[in-house]
Amino acid sequence: MNQSYSTFFKVDQSPEEVFAAINNVRGWWSEEIEGTTDELGKFKYHYRDIHRCTIQITELVPGKKVVWHITDNYFNFVKDKSEWKDTDIVFEIDKKDGKTEVRFTHVGLVPAYECYAVCTDSWGIYISGSLRDLITKGKGRPNQSEQIANKHGIET
Q: Do the beta carbons of residue 32 and residue 53 sit within 8 Å?
């Protein structure tokens, strides 16, 4: 059984609009992004000294799919510093019953991970909340890391 974290939602917008929103990472995840997020290549994310990662965009299929590979990662709140490293983040876009389904899977983010509770909560907020808002309302809610850290008792 695949235990990797996955979530999905459906919207009225087109697969092309959804694809554009996913690739606007600063619009839904964090404005603290270095690099380009809408073409193959690397970009970096960081939040204070709590979380840093380097992401390789390995697949971009317009209106269908986006795949990120985590080449490097650091959390200051877990013992195993290799968590997230060499995992994949997959966004799949599909037309279903006149709506566009967005399926997010963090392949390799499993319940055994120390960061699982924080990470799945964070992805829930960013994917089902912020990304969905960016798609449906034209404005996401990036930069929620402080609230998430506080909620989980992580020193900021």
A: no
Q: Whole-prediction pTM value?
A: 0.96
Burial label for 137, CB within 10 Å (0-12, 13-18, 19+), is: exposed
CA dihedral 73, 156, 124, 90 (to 10 degrees): -10
Q: What would the two tokens of residue 73 be? A: 């990662």
Q: How many residues does the chain have?
A: 156
Residues 134-150 have pLDDT tens digits of: 999 999 999 999 999 99
Q: Residue 75: which of 108, 42, 43, 48 has the closest Cα? A: 48
C-alpha dist (Å) from residue 140 to 58, 62, 108: 24, 21, 26
- Tell me the pLDDT tens digit for each residue of 12-41: 999 999 999 999 999 999 999 999 999 999
Phi and psi of 42, rounded to 5°? -110, 150
